[in-house]
Amino acid sequence: MSLVRLIYCSRFSKEMDAQQLQAILDVSRANNPARQITGILCYGPGVFLQCLEGPRDAVNDLYGKIIRDPRNKDVTLLEYDDIAERVFGEWSMAYVRAEDLSGGPAGFFGAPERFDPYSLSAGAALLFVRSLLGEKARFR
Ligand SMILES: Cc1cc2nc3c(=O)[nH]c(=O)nc-3n(C[C@H](O)[C@H](O)[C@H](O)COP(=O)(O)O)c2cc1C
Questions:
Q1: Whose Cα sits closest to atom 23 in ligand 1?
Q2: How far apart are CA 39 and CA 64, in angstroms?
Q3: Which residues are CB-contacts of 71 (< 8 A; sequence separation ≥ 6)?
């Protein structure tokens, strides 16, 4: 079974409240274990970055749903690769807010105090996602 990692970012089609965000997490955490999907969702003002890890068919299928999800727009694939092992194997979907990251989003994104995943190259998106593992204490 071929294992892959997919990293994308998207914008909310409408402003989301805490309840709507929680609903996305609840569905993810309910569905992902049966599909052997793990990963992390990072939330910034108006924007998501998500890393999905799992069997290729399951990840591709879920990404298709996410692209068609009307809560999302401007879904942009940042990085996709085969992997030997998972980074977020312990989480059906970890969740972290960019504003909670140590040093804030500027810690990774440089001078502007802004979480802007659209500016990331594939390599930088992967580095960012890997850096999130060091922020375990801030996962919700
Ligand atoms: C930003 C974002 C991330 C999502 N992540 C997941 C996920 O990890 N797993 C999942 O099952 N659904 C996720 N969803 C929800 C899916 O888009 C979809 O609504 C859900 O899988 C139910 O699809 P279904 O009714 O076709 O089964 C996410 C939605 C959004 C907007």
A1: 65
A2: 16
A3: 12, 13, 14, 16, 20, 24
Q: Record the pTM.
A: 0.94
Domains annotated on the chain, with CATH: 3-138 (3.30.70.100)
CA 83 to chain centre: 16
Mean pLDDT, residues 118-122 taken together: 93
Residue owning the nearest CA to atom 6 of ligand 1: 28
Protein residues whose CB sits closer than 6 Å to any atom of ligand 1:
10, 24, 27-28, 31-32, 41, 48, 50, 62, 65-66, 69, 71-72, 93
pLDDT tops 70 at residue 58: yes
Q: Which two tokens stand for residue 4?
A: 């892959």
